[in-house]
User: Which sequence fits this backbone?
């Protein structure tokens, strides 16, 4: 897998996984009955598979993937990449436990049937689930904090280095937050909407969940619009002449170069279409038209996901590092 | 304490490629990668200049700080080295380096995607280890410096290098003042 493709897939999916876990945590708090929990349980299948695919994408670009798995968090003292990997590892561990407590639950977990048929684990897993079930929300909150606060901050900071001037600004963190909450939360909403459309049965808590999704979605679209505008207009602001030179070169590629199409497509799809669908979703919820709301929730996720992939393509593709402008600077000193 | 540094006199470089060839020969750097390159600025225009780019062995090496697997380290004499056996090829040092020094050759079978950079001619491209597992290092003797026909590339002990550069800068200033 080429360098940029693996970075795009890894960052988008790992952040999406954090958002998916947050969505499940919201669902966890919204579920008032076993029926609610049974309906929401399907959404628990989003987080772990998504982050696993992201991790595979990340490791695929390493020259030595197995060595990378063992040693990437060896330099916690100074390397933000090491810190990012450690934070992600802790998040994945917590996310796996949290997901297991959903899907192995004895009354509505979708794996309960399979577990009961396997002799070795048929007694062990239910016993463990019973012990840890009261801690599910706490584990979920810990996973959300590890993912949304620690991992996102470490991840954004690992890109915000002075040798990459166009990344070295707060918009990097804003982009990552938007991917997490917009793509992640809507991914779970989309999966649950598909389930609703197939079974046509859900309680009021699903409506509340879609309202929460709409609110988060609108807030993230507004944040994304601000971040994209800030990214375009504030790029020339830099602390040194060299950094300014690199930022202007990045801006030139973003606005007029080979990544301009991706940028404007991101604006149209990732902001425009997502906003239109979110407004439609809100109207459908007001009219209590759940089928329409479910279809629009799926559309919101599809457009948000495409938009984030396009945005990340611009993020990684248009960057001009300091090393590219360094010769120009050295030649005039 | 002896600290080694490179310093490039851009006014003297003529883009002969001697440093590139000498480095390749000395360190047995294979086809598909290089430890030094000469960048052309304003090519074909007034003010055309040439800048040799390699690892500058930074005092506070950002690559060393960025490397997640501690494959990069700094010797007491300031030379920044790396262990190819530890490198995972993540490319993070390449992002952190302001000079774009780390390279990741993908058409070299033994070290495919593994980082390589200037070692001040202390370690060749194909690093060897002794029985104790330590990388075999030779005395610092940068061939790009000794091969540079115009002495544009300066390298060696910091005080000596900066003194040469200082004298040249003073000479240029004097030339301008007397209109030579």
Assistant:
């Amino acid at each position: 897998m080429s360098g940029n493709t693996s970075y795009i897939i890894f960052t988008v999916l790992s952040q999406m996984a954090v958002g998916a876990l947050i969505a499940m945590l919201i669902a966890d708090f919204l579920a008032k009955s076993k029926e609610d929990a049974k309906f929401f349980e399907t959404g628990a299948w989003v987080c772990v598979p998504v982050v696993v695919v992201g991790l595979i994408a990340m490791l695929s670009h390493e020259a030595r993937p197995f060595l990378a798995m063992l040693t990437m968090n060896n330099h916690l003292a100074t390397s933000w990449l090491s810190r990012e990997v450690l934070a992600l590892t802790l998040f994945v561990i917590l996310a796996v436990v949290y997901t297991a407590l959903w899907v192995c639950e004895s009354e509505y977990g979708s794996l309960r049937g399979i577990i009961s048929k396997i002799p070795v684990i048929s007694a062990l897993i239910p016993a463990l689930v019973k012990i840890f079930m009261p801690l599910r929300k706490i584990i979920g909150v810990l996973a959300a904090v590890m993912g949304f606060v620690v991992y996102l901050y470490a991840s954004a900071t690992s890109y915000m280095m002075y040798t990459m001037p166009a990344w070295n600004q707060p918009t990097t963190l804003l982009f990552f937050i938007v991917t997490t909450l917009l793509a992640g939360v809507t991914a779970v909403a989309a999966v649950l909407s598909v389930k609703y459309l197939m079974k046509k049965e859900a309680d009021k808590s699903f409506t509340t969940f879609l309202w929460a999704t709409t609110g988060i979605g609108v807030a993230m679209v507004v944040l994304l619009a601000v971040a994209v505008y800030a990214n375009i207009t504030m790029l020339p602001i830099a602390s040194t002449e060299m950094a300014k030179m690199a930022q202007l070169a990045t801006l030139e590629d973003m606005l007029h170069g080979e990544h301009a199409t991706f940028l404007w497509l991101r604006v149209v799809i990732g902001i425009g279409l997502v906003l239109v669908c979110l407004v439609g979703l809100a109207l459908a919820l007001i009219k209590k038209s759940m089928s329409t709301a479910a279809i629009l929730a799926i559309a919101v996720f599809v457009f948000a996901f495409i938009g984030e992939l396009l945005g990340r393509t611009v993020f990684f593709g248009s960057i001009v590092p300091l090393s590219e402008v360094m010769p120009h600077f050295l030649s005039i000193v | 304490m002896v600290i080694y540094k490179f310093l490039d006199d851009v006014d003297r470089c003529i883009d002969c490629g001697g440093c590139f060839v000498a480095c390749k020969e000395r360190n047995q750097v294979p086809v598909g990668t290089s430890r030094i390159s000469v960048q052309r600025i304003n090519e074909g225009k007034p003010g055309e200049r040439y800048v040799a780019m390699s690892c500058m062995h930074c005092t506070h090496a950002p690559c060393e700080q960025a490397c997640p697997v501690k494959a990069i380290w700094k010797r007491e004499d300031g030379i920044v080295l790396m262990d190819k056996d530890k490198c995972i090829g993540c490319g993070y040092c390449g992002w952190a380096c302001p000079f774009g020094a780390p390279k990741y050759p993908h058409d070299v079978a033994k070290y495919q995607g593994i980082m390589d950079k200037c070692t001040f001619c202390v370690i060749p491209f194909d690093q060897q280890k002794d029985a104790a597992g330590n990388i075999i290092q030779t005395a610092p003797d940068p061939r790009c410096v000794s091969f540079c026909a115009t002495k544009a590339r300066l390298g060696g002990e910091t005080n000596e290098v900066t003194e040469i550069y200082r004298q040249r800068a003073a000479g240029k200033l004097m030339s301008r003042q007397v209109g030579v």
Q: What stands out?
A: Chain A touches chain B through 34 residues (CB under 8 Å). Chain A has a mean pLDDT of 93. The first helix of chain A runs from residue 3 to 30.
